[in-house]
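Support request from a user on the community tier.

User writes: "When I paste my structure tokens into the form, the page sometimes reloads and wipes my input. The last time it worked, I copied everything first. Here is what I submitted, just in case something in the input itself triggers the reload:"
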């Protein structure tokens, strides 16, 4: 018997993923506008510091840059490990269109 303290949730992963992606896109836009407002030059690529006697020196995809202040923002990419059965998973979740979650329901006065 279900009562008003019960709930049934439907998680549609495509909807959740789109909302997350839209949120990240919005945040990235905010960060980019703030960098531009503060007159920060943003250079995208694979970067590494290289030895120099004259101050900070950075190699970005083969091109050298120097400045009074340099920040390298590290990033990452997800990988799919080679684990049997992993093909049917997506971010640790089964690739079904939707998943159901039943909350524990209280019956009576318990």
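"...and here is what came back when it finally went through:"
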């Amino acid at each position: 018997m279900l009562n008003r303290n019960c709930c049934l949730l439907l998680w549609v992963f495509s909807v959740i993923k789109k909302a997350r992606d839209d949120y990240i896109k919005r945040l990235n836009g905010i960060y980019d506008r703030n960098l531009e407002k503060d007159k920060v030059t943003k250079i995208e690529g694979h970067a590494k510091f290289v030895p120099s006697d004259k101050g900070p020196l950075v190699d970005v995809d083969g091109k050298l840059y120097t400045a009074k202040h340099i920040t390298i923002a590290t990033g990452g990419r997800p990988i799919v490990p080679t684990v049997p059965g992993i093909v049917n998973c997506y971010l640790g979740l089964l690739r079904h269109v939707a998943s159901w979650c039943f909350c524990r329901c209280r019956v009576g006065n318990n």
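Agent notes: The reload is a front-end session timeout and is unrelated to the input. The CA atoms of residues 47 and 72 lie 7 Å apart. The longest strand covers residues 8-12. Escalated to web team.
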